Amino acid sequence: MSLFKFKVSAPNVRVNIPTRGLNLNTQARTIWAIGGGKGGIGKTLITSNIAVYLSWLNKRVVVVDMDLGGANLHTSLGVEPPNRTLSDLVMGRIEDIHDLIQPTPLKNLGLISGAQDPVGIANMRHMQKARLLRKFREIDADFVLLDLGAGTATNTLDFFLLADKKIVVTTPEPTAIENAYRFIKSAFYRMLRASSPSPYVRQLIETAMDAKNSRGIRTPRDLLAEVNRLSPLDGAELDKRMHQFSVSLIVNQVRVKAESDIGKSIQMVCERYFGMDVENLGYLPYDNAVWQSIRRRMPFLLEAPNCTAVTHLEEILRNLLKTKR
Q1: Distance of CA 103 to the CA centre of its chain
Q2: Residue 10 has what pLDDT?
Q3: How far is it, in rounded angstroms, from Cα 143 to Cα 242?
Q4: What digits encode the pLDDT tens for the residues 211-258?
Q5: Packing angle of the helix pair 174-195, 199-208 (nearest 10 deg)
Q6: How far is CA 110 from CA 47, 84, 167, in A?
Q7: Sheet containing 61-66: which strands, arranged edge to edge?
Q8: Which residues, 6 or more positions from 72, have their beta carbon under 8 angstroms from its beta carbon?
Q9: Hey, which residues does 64 pair with through a beta bridge?
Q10: Domains of the chain, earliest start first
């Protein structure tokens, strides 16, 4: 079943999209999740514009609003709230996830909305979540982008961990940076706990997630040292899982040069103290044209294609598309 039978072009938009250096031979149903520890940092803004850019590259794209109970991605794309939303799939009123895809004004770009969903959907049961995770892998598209809600709720972390590319957004504000660290660390521990077959190691991971734990485990490196001390075999497996975990980082709303280096600083801290791989994708500068586009309910790629933020978004896309996964 082809989802992209609609062929609606963006009205009066003529933009030259440079493709040199971009790896466009991605596998089908590559999932990118965009998350972060704090609200208002621009996750939806970034998701919508990345989606537009990929659609211009002639890729079939579906964006999914996963801010369950508080969805507004449809507003960023300038479309009306749909009649069918994720709750219809979660509650079993719809079986085929393709029936939720709403056309947008852009060819190749579809939207699955969470708008008008009851707040309680954010607390879906395990079986409902597992079903939704499977359904995302069934979507007939080149890219599926999950726009996640803020915070470290277990459902949010599980959808983040589902993705082939895990993208964390932050801003230069101290509270946003602190919450970005918390989000990355929580996702990391959640991944380790879910992948560990040893009940004892899982218990240690749960202990480590308490920052005030009595065993003195403050970082993943501390956790690895404790597991190695008690069971070198389990320690070797845990170390392997740690090195397989990778996240990508975007810093939004950068105003001065010093703030543009925050991504590198977060990358260095995570690698040194957490032992995890963090890819610094780049940053988006604060740009009045971007915020004017938000007020007009349009992605800035459409509203202000020549603004400074577009150049930086192109660089972020180049970094994202260097590899298939």
Answers
A1: 22
A2: 43
A3: 26
A4: 889 998 988 888 999 999 989 999 999 999 888 899 999 999 999 999
A5: 170
A6: 13, 13, 20
A7: 102-103, 109-112, 61-66, 143-148, 30-35, 165-170, 246-254, 277-285
A8: 44, 65, 115
A9: 112, 146
A10: 30-320 (3.40.50.300)
